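Archive entry. Fields below.
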Amino acid sequence: MSMAENPLIEIKNLQKYFNVGRGAVLKAVDNVNLQIMEGETLGLVGESGCGKTTLGRTIVRLYEPTGGEVLFEGKNVHKLQGQELREFNRKAQMIFQDPYASLNPRMTVADIIGEGIDIHGLYKNRERTERIYELLNLVGLNKEHANRFPHEFSGGQRQRIGIARALAVEPKFIVCDEPISALDVSIQAQVVNLLMELQQKLKLTYLFIAHDLSMVKYVSDRIAVMYLGVVVELATSEDLHKSPLHPYTQALLSAIPIPDPETERKKKRILLEGDVPSPINPPEGCRFAKRCRHAKPVCTEKQPEFKELEKNHFVACHLY
Amino acid sequence: MERLLEVKDLEVSFKTYAGEVKAVRGVSFHVDRGETVAVVGESGCGKSVTMQAIMRLIPMPPGVIKNGTIVFDGKDITKLSEKEMEHVRGSEISMVFQDPMTSLNPTMKVGAQIAEGLIKHQKMHPKQAREKAIEMLKMVGIPNAEKRVDQYPHEFSGGMRQRAMIAIALACNPKLLIADEPTTALDVTIQAQILDLMRDLQKKLNTAIIIITHNLGVVANLAERVLVMYAGKIIERGSLDDIFYNPRHPYTWGLLMSVPTPDLDKSKRLASIDGTPPDLFAPPVGCAFAARCEYAMKICYERYPEDFPVSDGHSAACWLLHPMAPKVKPPIGKGVTL
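PREDICTED_STRUCTURE:
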């Protein structure tokens, strides 16, 4: 897929802090700068607690940012009002991780999918019903499913309903927050294929959040790696896997077990010591310094700049 | 190698208000001393129930072991009394679960949880057991073991809790460790640490490991032999290389192809297995995979295929392996045409 030149979304110095009491601040997202191009899939990876979900949620206005801004088609999304706000809420949608918790058990599938259509006044009566059937078809379900309740469906089918709900309002941009991690392997492939087909058909832009790097590599055009609230590396999916620059990315890539016995037998792993430190009052300097095998004195003193080392390959590390 | 565990024709059902769920429908396999066997399959395929049957942890009722023998270290587990079973569970077979937060006791210090088994099964003195607990924590790579031994599970991170679980499981030096999705709840870098730890400890203690997982990367990393389960039956078994490089069952092909390999690019679609696993209230008469199988023949719907041997230790339950079946070229693996 060719990448359009103009960014659909620009994230500038975005911060999202949470007060966790007793003067402690959890810096979930700290000065993140990213652009999401029209029609691309930007993968966002990192371990639990690194702030990837918070970033996704802040972009679609589920959170107010502490600082910085998010521009969607050039406009600051957190300052939108009235008609423009409704328009943004329609254009930016989200697919959630847990297909069991994200569907209202008391609503039928038709009502779940139709809710957005009603709110935005897109279709009425016959047309509305037709549209719901069409959406069900689009995600691989059929109209017999329309009057059933979520508990009658399997995990993969529920995720399809979640996708149909997001598509109902004809969005341009979808945040997919770990859309496949709760599903079985064979069902994961079905959902990923569906998401990619829909992207081509409907010219969607995705922010694909996940911790399964091999799947992210497959679906994404570019990948951003987050660690403790900071984006440490950003590159095309190819470059990131062929020549990861940040020591954390290198460790993360080497840690994934590859489903090929020979590769596994030969592989030298970079084992990281310890766990991800708490994002509450994170360390000064580079957040990764404590676990980094290349750490120098400067790493614990100054936060490294996020710079473009090669074309379209950004990294925040004092080694370079 | 010496047999440690031999499961024969195991059938487990659950009686529910809606009828009988046949969760395990005739499973036979063995585990030798000191080897690692991986069980793969989708949720609901019966892999966890099989392991629970080995541990005799199936709630009865509603569960029933309808048929089969489980011989562990020379004794039939299905015939042991609850008291004898308690001894087996603590000191001969132990288990590590998926979620380390819910499987540790939140009201007990970690050290006490490790020592519990030692005091009970090995009649160790509490003081001695505490020393051993510290030693175990050190062995599984927990820093400051002397301090950590007196902490509660909530003071541990996810990775450390799983290490503590492994320490508890291995404290009595069991002959068999059953690890049920031990790394699923963990982050990749922590997962790599835990897999490394399990491999190291196995070498040191010569414990046999059964690992249940749906992550094929983990299988490739750890296992020596693989059992593939589908709808309550083992549909293919073989060495690690047999399964990855010469798989014979279409379900195994589907599983292997639905994970993206590092060199797969975006222009190609992932192979997915359409449909969902069958309802185990009324499992199909023939092959349970037939409805989702693109190679299905008439006989597949009518009779369950026997286990066709492929090579020593490698077999698959699929009619395609019958001499009269049409030749099909596997879409994956380095294998030859069937």
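CURATOR_NOTE: Residues 33-47+80-223 of chain B form a domain with the Rossmann fold fold (CATH 3.40.50.300).
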